[in-house]
Amino acid sequence: MRAFWIALVGCGLMTAGAQAADLTAGKAAFEKFTCASCHGADAKSPIMPDYPILAGQHQDYLAHALVAYQRGQKGEPASANVRKNAVMGAMASQLSPADIVNISSWLSSLPTPLHVR
Known about the structure:
The chain is mostly helical. It is built from six helices and no strands.
């Protein structure tokens, strides 16, 4: 029972440090960092078929991907869960932790053509 309470308090401390998302700031950052130039102004009309639709993706997935691109840009070892892409690495390296939370939260709030069958 004691282990349960310790785990519960630990989870509470982790979430207390989590940053609240600002969707308006997320949209502004999406525009500021020219994400639309590849992913489309609506985040669901990429200019190339290989580029992903971002609208409606899970917030945690998007945030994780952006951090992984930052790690790849820094040259961290593959064991650090990196993504290497010259364009995305350069773009993601400009983002602050608040930008990542805000952009990924705003994108996840958008309507999407993606669905599970």
